[in-house]
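Morning F.,

Quick status update on the modeling queue. The single chain you submitted on Monday has been processed. Sequence for confirmation:
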Amino acid sequence: MIKKIIAFLLLAFCLTTFSQEQNESRASTLDVSYMYGVIANHNSNILHLITGHPEGVLLSWNRKTFGTHAWEERFNYPDVGASFIYQDLKNEYLGANYSLYAHYNFYFLKRNMIFRVGQGVAYATDPYDRVTNNRNVAFGTRLLSSTYMMLNYKKERLFKSPFGIQAGVTLTHYSNANIKAPNTSINTISANIGVTYNLGKEREYNYIHREKDSLRVREAIRYNIAFRGGINQGDVIGTKQYPFYVASFYADKRIGNVNAIQVGVDGFFSNFLKEEIRYNSIAYPEKEVDPDTDYKRVGVFVGHELFINKMSLITQFGYYVYYPYEFETRIYERIGLKRYFGKRFFGSATLKAHGAAAEALEFGVGVRL
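Structure tokens below.
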């Protein structure tokens, strides 16, 4: 592991030197951190996978913002960046994960504290295999969806040098969103410590400030229509993957510059439930499942949307009002990202789950009327 850390540090140094030669005036930074932590015990089925303390390396590039766009000032001039994580999960069945992310850094306390949120894709070296690795019930596929959050103290340009330090905690989540079973997922909580390097020469940066009224957004209630879909699988390992479809209609109301509340309805057409209903009616007669039970569901939800430039973060909590077949719980949640194209049309990628149990990774399109 030490050799790998040294290799990453050398890579960071080479990237730093190259970037500085290319453009010394770029307002951006590199950072590299060492991570050491634990796997969170969120499910009793993964107890045999918690055997050591995961460790790894986080390498990031961050571009500073100064208020060229109004959203940058609203969020206290965040960084936009890309990051890479290598994490050895210290378990013979889990192996290691390699991940790529896009991220934002949000600043607090005179820009000495940062909260980072990153979303990306991970590659698992040792996913589940019925013959060679049937103990890995966390990852059913090599490619995983991954999210990480980091809270760090950061001090740049120590002693007027381009180098700085940072330290804090990181939460990393890996899951394939039930695209293929098994998928109990893994969450790691890590302490991190690292160094930062400022690209370009030291200088005073001028942040753009606007009149407060120019930052205000005024909107009436807006109506949204969205269609989502994808593929997923039931909890029984070895069953087929099936397509699913979701139709949603909801209203939203801006309650500030960056926030909106939502109220709406979802219609779910999850074909994997057809197979689950048929399977349980045959394999478990004691459950008394009628094979003709309707697989469709209807839910009502309330939600929140956080607008960040052309992107937004949505969080929704729903309740099934039509629930003919009991699957997980009647309460569900959805979290994900939307990307606006113009003022009306958007695309989205969201995760639907019941508590800690993911059901589907949804990709969708919609219109905000």
